[in-house]
Structure formats: structure tokens, C-alpha cells
Amino acid sequence: MEKIRIGIFGFGKTGKIIANEFLHDNLFTLEWVVRKGYEDHRKYASRLLGHECDAGEIFSIGDIDDNFFDTRPIDALIDFSGLTGLYLYEKAASAGIPIISAISQYEKEELDLLQSFAESAPVLYSPNITLGINVLLVAAQILQKIAPHADIEIVEEHFKGKKEVSGTAKKIAKALNLNVKEHLHSIRVGGIVGRHEIIFGMPNQTIRLLHESISRAAFGQGAIFAAKFLLGQPPGLYTMETVIADMFRKNIPVY
Questions:
Q1: I need a surface site. Which of 118, 194, 222, 243 has the fewest CB within 10 A?
Q2: How far out from the chain centre does Cα 143 lie?
Q3: pLDDT in tens, 100-124
Q4: Where do the DSSP E strands lie in 114-204?
Q5: 162 noted as active-site residue
Q6: Is 196 tagged catalytic?
Q7: Catalytic one of 158, 183, 196, 211
Q8: 166-204 pLDDT, tens digit each
């Protein structure tokens, strides 16, 4: 079986972890990585990450020309870069290459561009691409329909240096139609990577849905899950939520 060829945009703290997860998975081969500057230019991500092989040649955004995706073919593109990254791979989208974007702070202009890519390629967009948080989100919406009168509170915990309110927590609140100021509570202590809890309060019982990130590697595992799903899909815009929700529907036990 031929391996799935992957290209990655972004080689910062999270991008390196994503690359490492793909390097550890025998189903994939990391073809190249694109980063903003020229640091480690034309070296191999695999070597920098401690692997004894040459994989993931590092390019700068200055190397992206009209022929880049033709001369360095891939089966899927993973974007963990930044707001402007998607302006560099329109050629990949027009060629029908599946795209997975995990950028959390797109402006409307970028979202519109990503949507246009979905006309010619399968595009999966999820600001938080971890498998667990999307299972949590779908499960919470199902539970809210089952118990519509339950009191619901969201608690998000992160490392002490994180100043802003969790974007994932805001997304959960929006999905459950909850006022952020009234129902979202933030805690900042120690070195917590990320913890999201949704509490459903009902007479005589409480249900808690909890997801805790132990390592940023969870983002890489989510990207791997997304890549496996997206291959072979028709053009269109997908999200981890819709993929997980569809799996819920297909796997509900029949008694």
C-alpha cells in the first residue's frame, strides 16, 4: 500500500508537534514543510525532530511559486501556520488537493477564501482539531436536546499565562446557545495545557462532560484522523463536528 504524502504549512511550536505525529505514523510520509522565514532552510524536519531519516524538507514561503505543488506532489495539505498561509496554496486547492486547516483566528476574508477552495477540493476546517473536544461538543448538543431544561455551565482551565478566554469554550457556548458572560467560567493556574468541562444540572443528578488535553500531540492525532477521512471525499467544506456527528448517527446501538 502506498503511503499518503503530506505537506505541512507551519513549523512553530505546534507545527513541529504535528509534523512529528505524522512522522510516527506508518500510513503517511511527510514530503515537505513550509515555514515563514529561512531558518533551517532545505534541511529536513525529521532530522530536527530527532529521526534518523530524511523527510519533510523545509521550505520558506519565498519558495512557493506556480510550480511548487506540481514538482512536489502531495495527497493532502495540513495548515497550522497563520492568517495568511492559505493565500499561498490556492494552486493546491485548484488541483483538488485535500486541505485541512486548523487556524483558530481567521477573519471573514480568509474564511471566504477557504470557502472558495471548497468548490474544487475537499476542505476540512476546524479551529480545534482535537478528536476529543469535537466528540465533547457533539455529545453536549445531543444531551441538551435530551434534557432541554437542564442548567448548563462551561468551565475552561488553561495555563497561567493564557490571558484570553478560550476560543473553544466560546464555540461550545455558541453551539449550546449560551451567553458567554453568564455561563462561561475561566480558571488560570499552573501549567494546564487545556481543560474544558460542560456541567448539566438537573433535579437529583448532575452530568459532566470533560475533555482534557495532556499534550499538543492531540492536535496532530486530530489532523491524522482528518486526513484519513478527507481522502476520497468530494469537494466541499467539512468540519470535525460534522464528521463526528455523522459517526454518532451511524454507530448508535440498536436494542
A1: 118
A2: 24
A3: 999 877 888 999 999 999 999 999 9
A4: 122-125, 151-158, 184-188, 194-202
A5: yes
A6: no
A7: 158
A8: 889 999 999 999 999 999 999 999 888 889 999 999 999
